[in-house]
Specification:
This protein is an alpha+beta fold and 133 residues long. It is 27% helix and 29% strand. Strands 3-6-4-5 form a 4-stranded mixed beta sheet. A two-stranded antiparallel sheet has the order 1-2.
Amino acid sequence: MSPVHRINPAELSPPAGFSHAVTATGGQLVFLAGQTALDQDGKVIGAALPEQFATALTNLLTALRAAGGAPADLARVTVYATDVADYRAHAGELGRIWRRLAGRDYPAMAVIGVARLWDEQALVEIDGVAVLP
């Protein structure tokens, strides 16, 4: 049984692509560093947000799997976007990418607009916290 439990109170607006609250009991915490669309050579790949989002999420999940976790173990994810309007415009596509790569067990999430990221070509960065059983 997973130590991560998602809570979505009926009194709040229905969540779309996130959970309002997540509790975690026991287990081991995994703090996942921010991941961008870097390939193995350290180069940002993809010119458009959806492609970069898919690569950044894949990188995050790769780190999580290397730590012994799975997407359902994610308790908290923060997305840093250099253009929140562009992120909102692609929200449907980004949601499909999330479901394809990570499933439908959504962590507590936030999207934060930033002026730029460490790699100037990066449009998005994703970090997170997971709880392993």
